[in-house]
Each structure stands twice: as C-alpha cells, then as structure tokens.
Fold this protein.
Amino acid sequence: MTPAPRHSSDALRARREARRRAIRRRRLAALAVVVGLPAAVVGFALAHDDRGARPVERRSRGSPDANAWRPSAALARARVTIVATGDIAVNDPAGTAPPLFANVRAALRGEVVIGNLEGALTTGGESKCERRRSTNCFAFRAPPHYARVLRRAGFTVLTLANNHSGDFGAQGRAETVAALRAARLGGAGYGERPPVNRVGGVRVAVLGFAPGHAGWDLRSPLDVTKRVLDAAARADVVVVTMHAGAEGPGSEHVQRGDEVFLGESRGDVVAFAHAAVEAGADLVVGHGPHVLRGMEWYRRRLIAYSLGNFAGYRSLATAGPARVSGILRVTLRGDGRWVRGRLVPIRLVKPGIPVLDEAEEAHGIVRRLSREDFHRRGARVTRDGRILRPAKSAR
C-alpha cells in the first residue's frame, strides 16, 4: 500500500490540531498558577483539547475499585437529555395558584431538567422591598411546598443564582434551600461545590452564575474558570447557567462588553459564556433578560443567551416580547459532544402560565437573532425547531 503523502489534508489537520492543543496547554498551565488550582484539576485541564473534549479515559461509575478506569468509547456511546427553561417567578404567598405546568409537562421530560427559580419558597423572612421602602421594587415568594410542585412538573435542578433569590433575606433563602432538598431537587448557584449527579452512567454537573451573586459571580473571570474547571474534573458533562444581561423589551440583542440595567452592571455575557466553554462547559444556558435571545456555537458547544420567561404567575409580563419563550431540549454524548437539539416554543398567558405555542413564534425570533448577533457562528433553527450547527466552514 502506498503511504499517504506527507502533506495530505489529514496530516495537515493533525498538525494544526496538535499546535492548537499545545497552545491551549500552555494557557491553562499559566492560568492554573494564577488562580491556584489543585494539582488534580490542573491535570484534567491539560488533558482537554481546544474543543473541550474529555480525556481518553474516565473513572467508571460505581466501580468497586477506585482505581478502575473505562475507555472513553463507553462515554461516547452514552446519551443524556438536558432540558432547560427560562425564568420561573411565582408570586403566590397563599399557595392558591392553579396548576402551572400542566400544558407543558410533556416537554419537560429529560434526565436533567433545569429551571431558574426567581424568588423564595418561604413563609417567613423580611421582604427586601420593606427594607428598601421603595415603590419600584419586586419581591416574589411562594410556600415551600412549591418545591414539590416543581419536582412533579419534571424539574430536577433549580438554580438560585439570580437577583431574586434573596427577596426575603437569609431566612427566606435558607427555607428555599431546605424545601428543594426535601423535594429531592438539585440546586445550583449556592454552596461551595455543585453536586455531581449520575445519569445512566454519565456524571453531570450544573453550575449557576449571576452578577454580584455571592461565590458565583459571573463578573469574576478567575472564579468562573476555577469553578468550571473543578466541575469538569469531577463530571463528564458540565452545564453552566447564567442569569445576566439587560432586561425587558429592547434587550433582545446580545451586547459586547458589560451590559447595564437601571444603572447596575449585569455582566459581559459573551466573555462569560466563552470563558465557561474554554474551561470545560459543554452547554451554556442563559436567562434574566426576560426575552428570548440568539444562540451561538463556540468551540462546538452551544450557548443559548436567554430562554426568556417560562412561568411568571402574578409576576412577569404576558404581553409583548416577554410573553414568548422556549424550552431548550439538548441531547449530548457522555463525553459532552453534541447529538441533537430542539427549541420547544412557549408563550405565557394570563396570569403567567406557560402553554405550548402553536404559532411557533420563538423559532423565528431565535433564528433571526442568532443570525444578526453571531453571523456565521449563529445557530440555525429550522421551522420545526431543530437546532443545527453552522455550516462546516463557519465552525
């Protein structure tokens, strides 16, 4: 058999890949020194290639031998379905709301189902609006039993990294965390380290960040990188959520640089999302602007910059752009690589209940914003909601 030419396309691709990997190794090694990462995390980071691929082998789930390893081929064959929604803000202190999720429960089926819980699940605590004595203030809460409502709807993880998790102070926050744990719901955006959940042999970690959020501030690049690298060292698939960006009508487009709302810094969402992917995130999901935003492909990972309002019982707008949102459904391989994705179109009806949108308005909005904001890196959204990667030349 005649050997392949020295300068064949395969050989060129291999050399380019090796060069990119070497550059990434040097950058991560330098970063590790700056942020003081543990040796184990540094070793894992250096095993990543420039697309965030996992090491050749990973620990076997549930193996009786702590030193046992399995080939990455097993992870490549595994699949995990991740479902994510936008903001959930329930303002129902008496707990008398009608069923909120009956119309969308089928779309919330998945191994990992993530929602952003704005407000507190508490019967106590002092409202931040009473402390501030301001008329332009919003504080949301519902009784602790709402955690069970969310669990029955299909959610498995609720992130508290947002600007409403402290609406009723430390007591309200503590009761919220306790309610989530009692309902066997995972949490993100609080505590020192996110838990790693096992899904069919795949370890999945979900992290939540927000501007100014204690311990999970997305405006601190070094902290973000350190936390994502640490999660990637312990999990096979890493999902990062962000509650960031300007709010309301007129904020549909993703801005470069720091976004500001009512004089408050809401973070540089592009820089944050890119840093998360570079550190090992396999999917980045955004919320906070209360409107849909575009989706970007970065290093072969999907970034959904805002999924809008998912549920806003007596709290969020049900008219204009704020009424349109979507449920993101993504299937990844066990090593984090993309398999498929879909955007399920949702709209809010009074008094803030999500229903499936037969007009599928979300598809056109996200398609347009992805193209306008990210050009060749923008996600392609088909008429039936499938999310496709850009053309090969644009990756």
About this structure: The CA atoms of residues 290 and 356 lie 18 Å apart. The chain has nine helices and 22 strands. Residues 1-7, 46-71 have pLDDT under 50 and may be disordered. Residues 9-35 form the longest helix (27 residues).
